[in-house]
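input
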Amino acid sequence: MTTTNATGEVGSSYLNSLQRKESKNDEKTGAAGSALGKDAFLQLLVTQMKNQNPLDPQQNGEFVAQLAQFSSLEGIQTLNSSVGYIASAFQSSQALQASSLVGRNVIVQTDKAVVDTSKDMKGSVNLTGSSTATSVGVYDKDGKLVRTLDLGTQAGGKVDFTWDGKDDAGETLPAGTYSFKATASINGTTTAMTTNLPATVTSVTMGTNGGEMSLNLAGLGSVPLSTIQSIGI
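output
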């Protein structure tokens, strides 16, 4: 008559066989690691119950502890599935929202803009302090200064300006890409300031692995969505 060894030895032997099986499956599927899933864990528990020593049976407390571990494992797997579903749903919602931005105007911190000179273009200057002399220089695609907008004395903060698309001689310039360089006299020192200018969204690039999506702007390239200050019509 064949006698059965202690439950621990049987469990250890069966555990090793399961691990070898998981490893083979990993080699076929290319998955990393050989962690046992809930099905293998349940098989191990049943095998321990079938092969326990009748003279020294496993205590109820040990079974309860293993069942608790099994429940925890199953709960974690369910939670992972739920989180994956939520992430997928969020990406789908983000893609839907992003598609509605194509063709719309946004305001972004930049020094260049594609300007339709047949109508006014509105922008703003980010002043870091009170300025006694504030101005915005408008430069064409060749880097030539074509217009200087005198904003005078301004308090610190965001200062709006409007360009009518004309040069200093009052002639309407052709539509195209223009650069805007703002300066301010703060405490007697002339300092360069940043500008916020309009741009048109041409397409949207979705972030990979949960990363932030980017907006592709006409004449400016790609910028992160978080850098957009406002969205117009």
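quick obs: The first helix runs from residue 7 to 29.
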